[in-house]
Amino acid sequence: MTAPAVAVSRARRGWRRGQSQGVGSPWRQPLAIVGVGVVVVWTLVALLAPVIAPADPIAQTSPLFLAPGAHHWFGTDELGRDVFSRVVFGTRITLPLAALLVAASMAIGSVLGGLAGLLGGAVDTVIMRIADLVFAFPGIILAMAVTAALGPQLRNAVIAVIIVSWPIYARLVRGLVLSARTSQYVLSSRLLGASSWRALLVDIRPNVAGPVLVMGALDLGNAILLLSGLSFLGLGAQPPAAEWGSMVAAGSINFDKWWISLFPGLAILTVVLAFNFVGDTLRDALDPRTARALRA
Amino acid sequence: MTFAETAAPTQPGADSDAPGTADGGPGRARTATRQGRADLLRYVARRIAIGLVLVVGTTLIAFLLTQLVPGDPAAANLGQQAINDPAAVAAFREQHGLDRSLPEQYVIYLGNLLQGDLGISQQSHRAVSTDLAEYVPATAELAFFAIVVSLLLGVTFGVVAALTRDRWPDQLLRVASLAGVSAPTFWVALIAFYVFFFKLGWSPGGGRLDPGQAAPQHLTGLYTVDALVHGQWSLFRSALGHIVLPGLVLAIYTVGMLLRFTRASVLEVVGSDYVRAARAKGLPERTVIARHILRPALVGIITVAGVAFGSLLSGTVLVENIFGWPGIGQYAFRSATNLDLPSIMGVSLVVATFYIAINIVVDVSYGVIDPRLRLS
Amino acid sequence: MTATRQTVPADQPAQTARLLEVENLTVSLPTRQGHCNAVDGVSFGIDRGAILGLAGESGSGKTMTAMAMLGLLPHGARTGGSIRLAGTELRTMSQRGLRNVRGRRIALISQDPATSLHPMLSVGTQLTEHMRHHLGLSKDAAHARAVELLTTVRIPNPEQALGHHPGVFSGGMRQRIAIASALACDPDVLLADEPTTALDVTVQAGILRLLDRLRRERGLAVLIITHDLGVLSAVADDVCVMYGGRIVERGRRAEVLGRPGHPYTRALLDALPHPETPDSALRPIPGSPPALGAIGDWCAFEPRCGLRIEACGQRRPLLNMLPGAPAAALRDAATTDASTTDASTTDVTSTSDHEAAATSEHEAACFVTAPAGAR
User: Fold this and answer.
1) What per-residue confidence (pLDDT) applies to C372?
2) Minimum-distance CB partner of A276 among B54, B182, B336
3) Do C212 and C277 fall within a single domain?
4) DSSP-assigned letters across all residues of A71-112
5) Less Cβ crowding at N or C end of chain B, within 10 Å?
């Protein structure tokens, strides 16, 4: 046989194979694109809030209960404040707090779950039983009790949400550490002498980081819902702060003035939906085994 | 080839792969059943024991939380008016052993709980337990309605999504379910009330019954059930009409949740050999779905149904007040906005206990469906 | 229900010579590059009471061929060619019509009885549900027939077995139950997809003997799909070897296994352990089967073939080129192949006057001469 013939057929096959491999990036999924786009827009709104907002979010300068119109796109509320400006400035409370909440829950949960998985024994039992106890309450009920006990403040609401959220990460990380610890390659690397804690962490980290970050992306939306729910109950952000949940609550008193609560609620919906679009796509992109661990 | 030739090697015994349990005869089969029942009982007992430990744990959390309250616990528990009444404060300190050590206080607290004493509500000035007893049935009715709706819609659409994987119904349902778990429940409730009651007038409005209607004679406390039992049809229709809107709003989140999970569970089953085998037998598609696909998927779905019930209970806190639904959700909402600490703790404990009980039921039904789980 | 039966009486010789006739079957699956052929111009036939073996590595299109006969292809799959059961065309039949064929006239036995029997349904349910649906049997009648079937496949204590879940049975017993389930509606054709792969060797022999007995006793046409030519050497009458969605060699069992014409068949045989010389090393086939869509109009096996010549990467070899003809003599077939590829792979008689095709049923799609006594 002659070389060119083989080369030709190789080239044809190679071309096709190369084509078939160009798949699978989660960032090419339409939902993820939409999600990232919406998050970027809201982030820009937060950064540029003073530029975008036509009015001071807490200035009571306009007539009360103006319906949406040319001057006040989203109308004015029961104190004559511009709803549009308040929604815009609301990003500056919700977005940073959501990031903070998730980062803190992730850090606390990962450390505790990692310790439980690595040390086992009594440490494992104590940490995981506490996690079980937190899971015994439906989320917002415990957060409500914690905030009520600590005092109704945004700071305490944040603490409450962290208390409710960390166990998910702890369970996830513990499970991942346990399965990574017993997996073949970690065992073999330990047999080869890499017995120190550091080596173990280096081996395990890549297996834990991905799922935890996806969990975080999925949890951003939940954190926002929980926090705004607490504010809706009057336990989070206090007046006159422009916080979306408390704005909806204010609108619920004058529910015939639909614009007061419609727009901040839409803001919550779009942000949470965007985070869930991204998180859901990321989860699908993970391998099925970890995806199952995340669902549980 | 004669019968004997082919038969000989396949005789039990000659076949190295001799039948296992099946050749043990009826005696062994009965033993196996009895063994299975004992396993199940032990499994149920263990789940209940774990549940009891968890309930005690939640009381510890509630107790510790009240300790966290800044300032005088008597003030926090009695409210601002009562604090000016020295006799009331002294009685409170005496009753809760506030001059004793923390563990002793907890024991006293547990003792009070066991007698049904959850403290006095600062709003109603009644015992929290009395308040809760009044409001629990309303929430139970609402939550039950919502969970039934959620299961029906969530499981049905979840199966549809899985069977049309990556085609347009699946894509549509994916967006819809994500929207369902992304919408703030309290806001949806408000918008729904505005549109369907205020604008369209389709919904009969807040409360459990029309104004002026008397509640049916108390039996279960669930108005729909009580009205049915007593044959009060117009009352039943009214009660049902009132429950539909808040029930559907509550169900939005849980439908989304169950839909996504059902889809995932069904997808795990649908590609399996036994489903292909069922289709290859020429069974009608509805039999394949109901008997061969849904049954194994149900194991996972039931677990999520328990979690969904928890979300429903959370949701009642945010939804009931908007619909004027006189349940523990509205009670919790008012307690939260008025910082009525004994009531909040009472609601938390009752809801947590409910939730733990539901999860025991879930675990047990799990064990009934899948015998392998009893042993773990 | 019975109407379907009567249109094609079982005992009357059909118009076509064979009970099941697959002709130039094509199955293409949707991929990112568009539709790609997973089964490419496959033809074969099975007589009543005969066993046809379909061999090849995983990914060669064997299972897809069987699924096409049942109309159970993945969503979006397209088919071409013809699948006739006693003269009735199945390829274009509606799903409704196919549901009356599946289980009733063509039954399937899957590879792994541990996964093909439903873990949560009792053996009784799984044996009787399609009987009751297809044959309209009452609960009692179906139960009685299930007992009879379990006796036929030699499950001890069939009455008790019906009440158990599949989990309590061993692998071999489960495969017997799966076979009983396949026989439940007295089908004409049995598709056995790797029926023994998941089983121990001794159990394998028992299952194969059972299949052999059943086809004789019941006049079943059996299609055994396997990657293991050793399985076929025991029972098959005819053997087709598939590679890359195409049949690369077919013929009587003794011919194909004794004088393999295609290098791929030889490679498959070399990969088998030799009972006579247990110490000789097995020779695995280097490389892996081509991906879907990676095959064009050339020999699919060319990249892995030790005997390839220039023509192998340029033209598609056809089934009627062997045996014994030297590569040079095939030039006339190779020059006409571009226009007649599909037709000529299937129908021996339509291929003009090719010396090998006219005389032998043993065909291999290869340009290269078979070295005499390759094994």
Assistant:
1) 43
2) B182
3) no
4) SSTT-B-TTS-BHHHHHHHHHHHHHHHHHHHHHHHHHHHHHH
5) C
Contacts of A5 in chain C (CB under 8 A): 310, 312-314
What is the tens place of the pLDDT at every residue in A74-133? 888 888 888 899 999 999 999 999 999 999 999 999 999 999 988 888 999 999 999 999
pLDDT digit string, tens, across residues A231-252: 998 888 888 888 999 999 988 8
- Do A17 and C291 count as a contact with CB atoms less than 8 A apart? yes
CB contact under 8 A, B58 and A228: no
CB A123 within 8 A of CB A174: no
For residues A233 and A251, the answer to whether their CB atoms sit within 8 Å is no
Q: Which class does domain A25-51+76-295 fall in?
A: mainly alpha
Domain residue ranges of chain A, discontinuous segments joined by +: 25-51+76-295
Query: pLDDT tens-digit profile of A260-290?
Result: 899 999 999 999 999 999 988 888 777 555 5
Residue B3 near chain C (CB below 8 Å): yes
Same domain, C129 and C33: yes
Residue C245 lies in a domain: no
Model pTM? 0.79
Cβ–Cβ gap C33/A19 under 8 Å: yes
Q: Which chains touch C (3 or more CB pairs under 8 A)?
A: A, B
Q: Is B28 on the interface with C (CB under 8 A)?
A: no
Q: In degrees, to the nearest 5, what angle opens at C-alpha C183 toward C-alphas C179 and C188?
A: 120
Among C211, C240, C269, where does a domain finish? C240
- Listed as ranges, residues in chain B with pLDDT below 50 are 1-30
- For chain A, give the mean pLDDT: 81
The answer to whether residue C96 sits within a structural domain is yes
Most confident of A27-31, C159-163, C281-285, C320-324: C159-163
Whether residue B302 contacts residue B366, with contact meaning beta carbons closer than 8 Å, is answered with yes
Question: Interface of chain C against chain A, CB under 8 Å?
Answer: 31-33, 290-291, 293-294, 296, 298, 302-303, 308-310, 312-314
Q: Which of A37, A89, A62 is nearest to A267 (CA)?
A: A89
Cβ pair C33:A10 closer than 8 A: no
Would you state the pLDDT for residue A16? 34
* Distance separating alpha carbons of residues B75 and B323, to the nearest angstrom: 32
- Cβ separation B19–C120 shorter than 8 A: no
Co-location of C50 and C163 in the same domain: yes
The angle, 0 to 180 degrees and rounded to 10, between the axes of the packed helices A139-150 and B25-68 is 20
Which residues are CB-contacts of A111 (< 8 A; sequence separation ≥ 6)?
Answer: none
C313: domain range? 260-364
The ipTM of this complex is 0.83
Instruction: Measure in Å the smallest separation between the Cα of C65 and chain B Cα atoms.
Output: 14
In a domain? residue C337: yes
| Residues from chain C contacting residue B370 (CB–CB below 8 Å) | 120
Looking at C212, C240, C268, the residue that finishes a domain is: C240
Which domains are assigned to chain B? 33-114 (no CATH), 134-370 (1.10.3720.10)
- Over residues C292-319, mean pLDDT: 76
